[in-house]
Amino acid sequence: MNEVRKVVIPVAGWGTRSLPATKNIPKEMLPIYNKPVIQYVVEEAQRARIRDVIFVTNRDKSVIEDHFDYNLQLEGVLERAGKLDKLEEIRKVAEMVNIMSVRQKRQLGLGHAVLCAEELVQDAPFAVMVGDDLMFGGVPAIGQLIEVAMAEKVSVVGVVEVPWEKVNRYGIIDGEETSPGVYRVRGMVEKPSRENAPSRLAIVGRYVLTPNIFTYLKQVKPGHGGEIQLTDAMQSLSQHHGMMAVRMMGMRFDAGDWAEFLTANIYFALQDEELRYDLLALLKNFVQFT
Ligand code: UTP
Fold first, then answer.
1. DSSP 196-230
2. C-alpha distances out from residue 69 to 54, 57, 86, Å
3. Of 65, 67, 165, 188, whose CB has the highest number of CB atoms within 10 Å?
4. Is this model's pTM higher than 0.90 or not?
5. pLDDT tens for residues 100-118?
6. Has residue 289 got a pLDDT over 70?
7. Atom of ligand 1 nearest to the CA of 109
8. Helical spans, DSSP H, in the chain
9. CB atoms within 10 A of CB 218
10. Which residues sit with their C-beta closer than 6 Å to ligand 1?
């Protein structure tokens, strides 16, 4: 299998769970401590040595591409003010990766968003990272998947263990563990009841896919809400070409869920030595009174 050089990051959804915050701001641009959500996702890709990022966007999301570009006016202001550490910080963001983008003109689901990137992906295996799913740990989550994809020469899906009472919210895999945390996928079930779930290994926003996925995405019939589900196409891909799953190490936050979004904010703010003491003092005070 060729090296994985490109990642597709779909960011064209409406973000309805996060309204009214996302009325005019993409949910991927909401900050987690001092960086927008999408920067954490792109940093993970960069750490896995991916250089080309394909954003699947809509008409209101160009601010996401701008974030990864130079802002010469702001750079001038910072330079004249002698704020050189800030200057370096914002320049670094512009230099992280190459950016390409394609419009998803109608929001027909995650599967459809990935299909929109077909022309830009061309004929090589590629990564998909969901633009509001944050993964943190020593080894970048997408890098864990790429390693297995290269070794096994098949598509790989990232999974995390969820509590049994939450299996009905996710696509769940049925798999045979071939080495610790690595599974050969036998099948997958979308949002099963607890009784029918083959495991509690849930598919969450990280994938490495072979270009065969596009053939199956074109065959998928729209499901709930007219959406083309990525899981439906992956089901066929796994049956015809094989698929592995990797239990990703590290923490995960769904930025579209307020409790997880706020927890992620506190988690990252606490990593900042300068802020930690003040934040803990304020939080302690506040928690005592609730
Ligand atoms: P979600 O279902 O979490 O995102 O899709 P959403 O639709 O924006 O959010 P809610 O549920 O209404 O709050 C997962 C990812 O897929 C992208 C979203 O931007 C998000 O990053 N997506 C979803 C698309 O790019 N296009 C779509 O048609 C749907």
1. T-S-SEEEEEEEEE-TTHHHHHHHPPP-GGG---H
2. 14, 16, 15
3. 188
4. yes
5. 999 999 999 999 999 999 9
6. no
7. 28
8. 37-47, 62-67, 72-80, 84-95, 110-116, 118-121, 141-152, 213-219, 230-241, 258-271, 273-288
9. 12
10. 10-18, 56, 104, 107-110, 112-113, 130-132, 256
CB 25 within 8 A of CB 113: no
Q: Which residue, judged by its Cα, is nearest atom 2 of ligand 1? A: 13
pLDDT tens digits, one per residue of 197-226? 999 999 999 999 999 999 999 999 997 778
Please give the torsion angle defined by the CA atoms of residues 18, 116, 140 and 234, in that order, rounded to the nearest 10 degrees: 100
* Two structure tokens written together for 176: 């045979």
Q: Which residues pair with 224 in a beta bridge?
A: none
Domain 6-256 has CATH 2.120.10.30: no
Contact status, residue 21 vs residue 30, Cβ threshold 8 Å: yes
Count the neighbouring beta carbons within 10 Å of the beta carbon of residue 273.
7
CB 97 within 8 A of CB 46: yes
CB-count burial class (<10 Å; 0-12, 13-18, 19+) for 170: buried
